[in-house]
Design a protein that fits this description.
The chain is of the alpha+beta class.
Length: about 450
C-alpha cells in the first residue's frame, strides 16, 4: 500500500453499453471517479427491426477509451500503475460470433433490441411440446423471445452461410459483449480466454438458472453445439490479464451485465430492494435473495450476482422495457422536434392541457410484462390542438407508465409492495420524468 500514489489503489471499469463505450478509473477506497473517456458506438439498421453494431468498433473504441483515460491519469500526475484491477460491465444479450484462429468477426454484432428472429421464435415455439413461449422458463428463467442471445445465435447459424460453415469447421466462438472483449483483451488468437459470467450467461436461454451451467437439453432444443459457448465464471474472480492497450498486465477481475452491475452499484444487497435503470431501454431489477422466483406475471428470472466462485448466488426478478431513452432520441433524430434531449423536460412542462396524448413505444415489440413481439408503436389522442410539446410529454410519460406496469407485476409476484425505488441512468437527470414516476407509482 505504501508504494501507491496519493489516492492509494485504483480500479478501472470498462462500461460497454448500447450507445457508447467508456473507461473509468475509481479510487478503490472511496469510489471517487478520477477520470474517464467515452466514445459513441454507431448502430447499423439495414432493415426494419434489425439493429447491428461492428464488433471491431466495439473493441477498438474500448481500447481507445482505456488508452485516453490512462493519458488523462498521467496529465493529472497519477501513476497508471496504481490501477490494481479492472472490471467489465456490458450491454447484455447482444450476440457476437468470431473465428478463434484469425480473431475476425463472422458477422456484425446483433444488438439485444433487434427483432429479426421473430420467425425463429415462432418455429421454436411450434416445435416445443407445449406450443408455448414459456416452455423453457422452468430451466432458464426466460421465455423464448427475440430479446435473448440463443435465438440470435440460432438465426446466425441458419441464415449466414459464413457462420454455418465456421460451425461445421469448428472455427466459431460465440459470446456476448463481455466475452468478446475479454477474449480480445487477454490475447485474442494468441491465448485469449473464452469466458463469460453468470449474469450474462443467464440472458442466453442456454444456461440452467439453478446449476449455473450450460444446459444440455436447452442446447439441444436450440440446436446449438456446446463447444461454441464460453466457460461460465462468477462475477468476481481473476479471469486473466490484459495483453493489449495501455494496461498490459492488469488483471480483469470483475464482470457483470450492465443491469446487474447497476443493482450492485445501487447496493441492493438485501432481498426486496430494487433499482430501475433508464437508458436506451428501462430495466427494473428486484433482489429475491437466494431464492429462484419464477414469475407468474410476465417478469424474467435472472442471476443478480455471484461475488466469487464459492459465494452464494443471488437472484433477481427483472422487468425489461425495450424503449425508454431510445424514444427521446427518436424525437430528436427521426421527427426532429427536439434539438437536444435535455430540452425534453422544459418542452414537456409547456404542454397544456396535459394527459390527452398517449404514446405506446413498441419499436421492438413490447417486452415485460406483455411479451408481444407483434406489437407496434401507436400515438393516440391527437387533436388539431396537439403540439410537439404534447408528443414529447407523452413519450416521457410512456416510460413512467411502463415502469408502473412492471411494479404492479412485481407486487403480484412477490406480495411485498416496494416502498422506494432506486434509480440511475441518463433519464434520471430529467426531474420531470422522475416526479411523474414517483407520482404514478406512489413511492419515492
Amino acid at each position: 500500500m505504501s508504494s501507491r500514489g496519493r489516492f492509494g489503489p485504483l480500479v478501472g471499469a470498462i462500461d460497454e453499453g448500447t450507445s457508447s463505450a467508456r473507461f473509468l478509473v475509481f479510487v478503490a477506497d472511496t469510489g471517487e471517479v478520477l477520470t474517464f473517456h467515452q466514445i459513441d458506438i454507431n448502430q447499423i439498421c439495414p432493415y426494419e427491426g434489425w439493429v447491428e453494431q461492428d464488433p471491431l468498433e466495439i473493441l477498438h473504441s474500448t481500447i481507445e477509451c482505456i488508452n485516453v483515460t490512462v493519458d488523462n491519469l498521467k496529465k493529472l500526475d497519477i501513476n497508471p500503475n496504481d490501477i490494481v484491477a479492472t472490471g467489465i460491465t456490458n450491454q447484455r444479450e447482444t450476440t457476437i460470433v468470431w473465428d478463434p484462429v484469425t480473431g475476425e468477426p463472422l458477422y456484425n454484432a446483433i444488438v439485444w433490441l433487434d427483432i429479426r428472429t421473430k420467425e425463429t421464435v415462432n418455429k421454436l415455439i411450434e416445435q416445443s411440446r407445449e406450443k408455448n413461449a414459456e416452455c423453457i422458463k422452468h430451466l432458464c428463467g426466460l421465455p423464448i423471445s427475440t430479446y435473448f442471445s440463443g435465438t440470435k445465435l440460432r438465426w446466425l447459424i441458419d441464415n449466414v452461410p459464413r457462420v454455418a460453415e465456421a460451425v461445421n469447421r469448428k472455427r466459431c466462438l460465440f459470446g456476448t459483449v463481455d466475452s468478446w472483449l475479454i477474449w480480445n483483451l487477454t490475447g485474442g488468437p494468441n491465448g485469449g480466454l473464452h469466458i463469460t459470467d453468470v449474469t450474462n450467461a443467464s440472458r442466453t436461454m442456454l444456461m440452467n438458472i439453478k446449476t449455473l451451467q450450460w444446459d444440455d437439453s436447452l442446447c439441444k432444443f436450440f440446436s446449438i453445439p456446446m463447444w461454441v459457448l464460453p466457460k461460465i465464471k462468477s462475477c468476481s474472480e481473476i479471469y486473466g490479464y490484459i495483453a493489449q492497450s495501455a494496461l498490459i498486465g492488469v488483471p480483469i477481475s470483475g464482470c457483470l451485465g450492465d443491469q446487474q452491475s447497476a443493482l450492485v452499484g445501487q447496493m441492493c444487497f438485501n432481498q426486496g430492494q430494487a433499482k430501475n435503470t433508464y437508458g436506451t431501454g428501462c430495466f427494473l431489477l428486484y433482489n429475491t435473495g437466494k431464492s429462484v422466483v419464477f414469475s407468474q406475471h410476465g417478469l424474467l428470472t435472472t442471476v443478480g450476482y455471484k461475488m466469487g466462485s464459492n459465494a452464494p448466488t443471488i437472484y433477481a426478478l427483472e422487468g425489461s422495457i425495450a424503449i425508454a431513452g431510445a424514444a427521446v432520441r427518436w424525437l430528436r433524430d427521426n421527427l426532429h422536434i427536439l434539438d437536444n434531449v435535455a430540452d425534453s423536460r422544459r418542452l414537456a412542462q409547456r404542454a397544456h392541457p396535459t394527459g390527452e396524448v398517449i404514446f405506446v413505444p413498441a419499436f421492438s415489440g413490447l417486452y415485460a410484462p406483455y411479451w408481444r413481439k407483434d406489437a407496434r408503436s401507436v400515438i393516440c389522442g391527437l387533436t388539431e390542438e396537439t403540439s410537439k410539446e404534447h408528443i414529447i410529454r407523452a413519450v416521457l410519460e410512456a416510460v413512467c407508465y411502463q415502469t408502473r406496469d412492471i411494479l404492479e407485476a412485481m407486487n403480484q409476484d412477490c406480495g411485498i409492495p416496494l416502498t422506494k425505488l432506486l434509480v440511475d441512468g441518463g433519464m434520471t437527470a430529467n426531474d420531470f420524468v422522475m416526479q411523474q414516476q414517483a407520482d404514478l407509482c406512489g413511492i419515492p
